[in-house]
Amino acid sequence: MAIEINGTAAEAAPRPGQCLRTFLREQGNFGVKKGCDGGDCGACTVHVDGKPVHSCIYPAVHAEGHSVTTIEGLSSEGELHPVQEQFLENQGFQCGFCTAGMMMTAATFDEEQKANLPRNLKGNLCRCTGYRAIADAVCGSHAPDGGVARSGAPAGSGAVAKGSGQLGDNVPAPAGHAVVTGTARYTLDIPAEQLPGLLHLKLLRSPHAHARIVSIDTTAALQLPGVVAVFTHEDAPDRLFSTAQHELYTDDPDDTRVLDDIVRFIGQRVAAVVAESVGAAEAGARAIKVEYELLDAVFSPQEALLPGAPAIHGEKDGETARISRPQNNVVAEVHSELGNVEAGFAAADFIHENTYQTQRVQHVAMETHCSIAWVEPSENPGEDRLMVRSSSQVPFLVRRTLARVFDLPEDRIRVVAGRVGGGFGGKQEVLTEDLVAMAALKLRRPVQVEFTRTEQFTATTTRHPFTIKVKAGAARDGHLTAMQVDVVTNTGAYGNHAPGVMFHGCGESLAVYNCDNKKVDAQAVYTNTVPAGAFRGYGLSQMIFAIESAMDELAVGIGMDPLDFRLKNMVRPGDHMLSTHPEPEEDVFYGSYGLDQCVALVRDALERGEKRYRDAGLDNFGPGWVTGVGSALSMIDTVPPRGHFAHTRLTLLPDGTFDAAVGTAEFGNGTTTVHAQLAATALSTTASNVAVRQSDTDLVEHDTGAFGSAGTVVAGQATLLAAQELALRIRAVAAEVAGVPESDCVLEDGAVRCGSRVVPFIEVYDAARQQGVEAAAEGRWGGTPRSVAFNVHGFRVAVNTGTGELRILQSVQAADAGVVVNPRQCRGQVEGGIAQALGVALYEEVRVNDAGKVTTDILRQYHIPSFADVPRSEVYFAKTNDQMGPLGAKSMSESPFNPVAPALANAIRNATGVRFAALPIARDKIYLALKDADASTPTQLTRI
Question: Are the C-beta atoms of 105 and 41 separated by less than 8 Å?
Fold first, then answer.
């Protein structure tokens, strides 16, 4: 019996053992996604006879004789299903990778199920949104206030105003319709007929933490049916590079090979098997025989720093590879002192000392790392082009790295990123592209690789674990007298992003406070563990956890309100922002300043929240419960240092609309919408009249990439400059048509008003052609000068001292985002950052055992926030207008994450009297700490 898919009988039959997800995708239903292959995330949800199932664990053979509906079949006769309309109206998505599965589940809900979403959406995970927008979409609710507040009441979700499209409007995501219908194309959503002869690559990975490969026998693997080739270190280029991607590749150490004869962590690549199917490639990997010479390993940075410890990259020349001290396992280090900390501590009335620790965390982007490569033949010898389609935040930097590794001119490589299913810094790496490029160049056939969720945990990158010794002093009048930190970061087996994360972490976390005496000693250290890399916050979240915890302890120690303590010490316009250098960064300025507003907004919201609980009689939870409030602040430079470049080309089209070619990638960060809005504002049209093409190295000259929150303030600035230049050209052409001075011409509503005459853009296009004028313009921006953005978070919590249960009663964040280009979208970024940070604060941890093996290698062992875990947060924006950003905007993608964990730790401290100095603050840790402190009836501390 055939499987009926969206009303049509499938012509093919499933293979033995095939799951329904892969079968449906083979039939062209690309809206069915892979997020886990374990029934954990719900991205693959479809209906079988009207009931939702996780198709990744549903045997395809069981669907024979039944009706299967995918997201592509949810709409009827061209009309969207109500749940699709609601997700579109409420923009219940960001990257959109989980959205099809979320809608397929929600489409079956009755009113009773909608009333209990924490239970009924527990099988569907989202890493981007924080779930508030999803809840509004499922329940069909929205508020007309734009989704944010600058003062006063908590924000609603926001509806899209009809005809909206410029600065400050809630412009819907241009890809919204494609996302909710399952037609948005992510990396691997390519029909088979477009890639004839597609091969699949799978990896044999090291079972040892540190070993030298003595020999590899691939004979048995090559004899298996379907196996086409096996690649080992003998086939790979000798060139060393870094998987980390920055504008300056010299920012990272050259310590990595495509395939190496020394393995330095469990999970490192040993061999790549290419076959006609995934199953054949996996069988080939299992058939390879490897002889290893085991080497001594170290698993903690403290071990690695000991005299005589195994040198993980000891064979490398430090100067050539840009490793600070390879013989001592130190990748990078900084040692500095401003003023005299010894004198500062002598002047202090209270000194706080503690060691703070932050853990490994996985990005858990719903789309795993994946790439496809093929060679596009040319009629001219030697001009064939390597084509790469990748889930990447940095397609232009990927092209540059591939050119370096394989000795190819950059113009012979094209890298395209389709819609990317989440990033969070994890896709600022080359982790798959080099493999498929090597195979495609050698085999001259298309080659695809897709990591499993387990490979994401064991063989990609994590957040850097930090150990931070803090010593800080304050005078009785509330002034900081000295700040000293000793920082050790664990970069794992390779140094990708190690220097940048260390330096950045020790930057704005300290620079946000005025203190004459500051001392920093920091080292990034190799260990034989899974590599760390770029992660949201880029070192700041780890350091801010320690610094903001210490600020609260100082305030308590001198008997001062913690927010008042921060107000007394935080930088103000005109103050130097100093951390490790005696002079401030030469290109960082206060383009605007809203930190004081953010503190006031959070304080006011917490006070209103306390009054609401008191007035409702909800301030007494009964015996064993204590309550508290806590807050934390953060500052971040709006652009990474040493240059971040973007190029945009805008063209007026014959129908009066515009084409915008940009380089930056879209992965839920919302930059596509921002580009359209900025261009529309400058051109006096609506965002719907600006079609954005992006993430293709053939489109524009160069784009550093979508990281460091640069999508708006760098790439958006380039787009704004192009639009402003094009507006001048349009005005000049229209003036010629109307026979009036340019000064009399104004762009408005898709036309140019020239005195009493209105010249439509369509007429401008025709006139430009006749005049020989190109109706196009280009914009470029280099990421400097830079401004600073601020975030303040506050929590009200209740803690059960008998059980360790924690309840978040109120969550508030105020952000200084400058002029907010798209309020609803920006609120979504803040909410998503809060949700991800809550997971890190409370339970997320990549655990590594004593042998260096990752043990939390599937989603059900690694708890990311589900719907039930995330409280609704109040989001407020300060009223500022930034001098550096496009039309006054600032960055606001990474920074909402940074103050959340310390604010929560401070609230728990305020409630219980116990300081938690290590993340995550899991319930069992709270229980044990309170038990150890004999804190069953703790004394309530001064409220914030």
Answer: no
Q: How far apart are CA 326 and CA 331, in angstroms?
A: 7
- Per-residue confidence (pLDDT) for residue 159, from 0 to 100: 36
The per-residue b/e assignment along 670-702, b for 16 or more CB within 10 angstroms, e otherwise, is bbbbbbbbbbbbbbbbbbebbebebbbbebbeb
Q: Where are the beta strands (DSSP E) in 817-899?
A: 873-877
- Strand, helix or coil at 221? helix
Tell me the per-residue pLDDT of 391-413, one tens digit each, with 9 for 90 and over: 999 999 999 999 999 999 999 99
Amino acid at residue number 775: A
Are 940 and 587 in contact by the 8 Å Cβ rule? The answer is no
Place of tokens 């239970």: 119
Helix 498-505 vs helix 540-557: crossing angle, to nearest 10? 20
Strand order in the sheet with 350-358: 330-338, 518-526, 480-492, 466-474, 350-358
For the residues 696-719, what does the mean pLDDT come to?
Answer: 96
Whose tokens are 């540059």? That residue is 400
Q: Is the pLDDT of residue 451 over 60?
A: yes
Residues 18-32 pLDDT 10s: 999 999 999 999 999
Two tokens, residue 801: 């001292």
Residue with tokens 């597609």: 198
Region of 105 on the Ramachandran plot (φ > 0 left; ψ -120 to 50 alpha; else beta): alpha
Amino acid 37: pLDDT:
87
Buried b (16+ CB within 10 A) or exposed e, 97-111: bbbbbbbbbbbebee
**Residue 145, CA atoms < 13 Å, CB-side half-sphere:** 16
Phi first, then psi, for residue 886 (nearest 5°) are: -65, 120
Task: State both tokens at 780.
Answer: 């470029």
- Read off the amino acid at residue 922: A
Write the DSSP symbol of residue 711.
I
User: Within 10 Å of residue 114's Cβ, how many Cβ atoms?
Assistant: 15
In Å, how far are 341, 361, 458, 528, 920 from 854, measured between CA atoms?
Answer: 40, 12, 6, 12, 17
- Where helices occur in 411-464 by DSSP H, the ranges are 433-443, 453-459
CB 199 within 8 A of CB 720: no
Element (DSSP H or E) covering residue 390: strand 385-390
- Antiparallel, parallel or unpaired: β 518-526 and 480-492: parallel
Look up residue 597 and give its two tokens: 């507003």
- Tell me how far apart the alpha carbons of residues 291 and 293 are, in angstroms, rounded to a whole number: 7
**656 DSSP assignment:** S
Cα–chain-centroid distance for residue 659?
27
Q: What one-letter code names the amino acid at 773? A: V
- Tokens of residue 141, six digits: 């609710």
- Residue 180 pLDDT class (50, 70, 90 cuts): very high
Query: Rounded distance, CA 785 to CA 544, Å?
Result: 24
Q: Provide DSSP, 225-273.
A: TTEEEEE-TTTS----B-SB--SSGGGS---B-SS-SEE-STT-EEEEE
Say which residues have a Cβ less than 8 Å from residue 339's Cβ, sequence separation at least 6. Answer: 482, 516, 517, 518
Rounded to the nearest 10 degrees, the angle between the axes of helix 540-557 and helix 900-912 is 30
CB atoms within 10 A of CB 28: 14
Output the pTM of the full model.
0.96
Of 52, 16, 18, the residue nearest 37 (C-alpha): 18
Contact 588, 577 (CB under 8 A): yes
Q: How far apart are CA 210 and CA 847, in angstroms?
A: 18
Give the full edge-to-edge strand order of the sheet including 211-217: 262-263, 211-217, 289-294
Q: What are 36's two structure tokens?
A: 């886990």
Three-state SS across 320-387? HHCCCEHHHCEEEEEEEEECCHHHHHHCCCEEEEEEEEECCCCCCCCCCCEEEEEEECCCCCCCCEEE
How much of the chain is in helix, strand and coil states, percent to nearest 5? 30, 25, 45
Q: 3-state DSSP call for residue 822?
A: coil
Number of H helices, E strands in the chain: 27, 31
